[in-house]
TrEMBL record:
Recorded family membership: Belongs to the bacterial PQQ dehydrogenase family.
UniProt KW Oxidoreductase keyword: yes
Protein name as annotated: Polyvinylalcohol dehydrogenase
Cofactors that this protein relies on: pyrroloquinoline quinone
GO terms of molecular function: oxidoreductase activity
Region ranges (Disordered): 1-26
Bias (Polar residues): 1-15
Organism whose genome encodes this protein: Xylella taiwanensis
Alphabetical keyword list: Oxidoreductase
Any Pfam family matching the protein: PQQ_2
Amino acid sequence: MDTTFPTFPTQNSWPSAGGGTLNSNFQPDGPLINATTAIRLQVQWSLATPGGFPTAPTIENHSLYVSNSNGTLNKIDTELGSLLWSIPLSDYTGNLHSVSLNSTAIAPEGIVVGDQSSGTLLALHKTTGTLLWKTTIQPSLDAKITSPPTIDEDSVYVSVSSGKSPSSVAALDMKTGKLRWQSYAIPADALIRGPLALNSAKKRLYALTSSNGKVSSLTNTLLVLDTENGTLLWSRNLEKQASTVTDNADNNGVTLFTLQINGTTRDVVAIPEARGHYQVLDANNGTILWSIEVNPGSTNSIVGTSFNPYKSHIYVASNATDPQMHNAHYLTALDAATGTMLWNIKLPESSHINTKHNTGGGIASSPDIVYTSLPGGKITMVNANTGEILSSFDTQASIVSPPVIANDALYLGFAFTDNTGKLYKFTTQENVQISNLQRNQQRSLINRMSEQNDHHDEHDGDGSWSYSGSGSWSGSGGYGGAGDYSGGGAGGYSGGGAGGYSGNGAGGYSGGGAGGYSGNGAGGYNGGGAGGYSGSGAGGYSGNGAGGYNGGGAGGYSGSGAGDYSGGGAGGYSGNGAGGYGGGNYSGASRR
């Protein structure tokens, strides 16, 4: 059965790079994160991995799919923050260097991922990760898939480039992987980069080429192809060079949308270019409607763009540099119909990382907020109407993926200079509290089932996926600094050491030390002070009284008695004793 791929994501999804076939990077739903609640965003969970996350995740309901730089594709539970499976692409391609640095795409039939070490496209089963099909589109040794997959109805579209052969756009059958057509961009020096954009109703596919050091009639050009057979319908050579700010193809590409201009409805295509040049064309014939140079006078590169159809605004994140390569990051709002600049702000810099050679980053928006992730590891949230900075979070990463919005939450992947990475989920303070309770209940059930079946935890193994790490929110209502929700102390996510999620040490999430999230010390979020949310009185939600939900009495949900949920006795779910679910490493990588 043919299924039309969404032009925009739904509240519980982000199915492809750019959020959908229009590549708008816009989430229309998700009312819990707005200009009022944005200052209360907190880290719900974070996952540290052996390889970084230079690409944006894709999401369907409570399943998140993301590839990392060590060549694996991973499925993660968005509620628990736990790894469900991790599969090396080399298992299916036979190429030890296989890696995907672009987003996957989620279709009803499966997950589609491209290999940047070969011209191979793969489809995997969403539940198990088993191979459904693989197709080598271009067999040359230096061929690579250079765009994230774009899916519509029963076809998947990607671009393929190599140093020797001409670049091409290919269409494959989504169910079988059979090649339907392949259209070549001439000459070979023209590279096709960035997400493709698709107008399903008019059966048109838009691709952007950039030069490989040489300029010709089809370098730095917009190509418009017929989706039925790959025929080139028309092309438009750009005034400036197409933006090639990074090898991560999730960031920049053409965006399709509809505008009311002088009382007439027009389909348009927006194009980011090098040196901060941005223009909007008629999508039917390539006529230039308007163009603008963002931050004129600088050697400026566009990091990412987003279109808000509710406000008819275009948001442009740019990385303006002087000849000494000192970065200055800007966010600009434009009127989509006229190109008029509405506001332009300088974004806060990372105080921890020298951003001279950093790459990556991107942008996404919702009705009220613009989210930017920039080189240097800082994520900033901005009021979409006024340009006011609401809050920012510094991850101290060197490469940042484009942000993704789904399930009333913000997801971001990062890569560090030591080839490790971390994936974050941010949500509102209220959602964190609800999700923590739900997560604990689910983990309790999982643990009990595991004990009954006498199975080892499926996440045990070499190489831990930990929830620990540093990072802090800044600005009004900021979350905190060191020792935060996923604090960096020894003991890991559920360990017993200082900073442990449910540990007994100081700063533990539910620990007994001063400042513990649910601890007994003064000032704890759920501390023991008078009036505390989960104070120490009898019957308190997380108190010490007998029978309390997380009380200290024998058998208490998180108490200290033997066999309790998070207690210190043997078998405790997150306790320090032998057999505790979090007594050692929480989980291991590559367990399938």
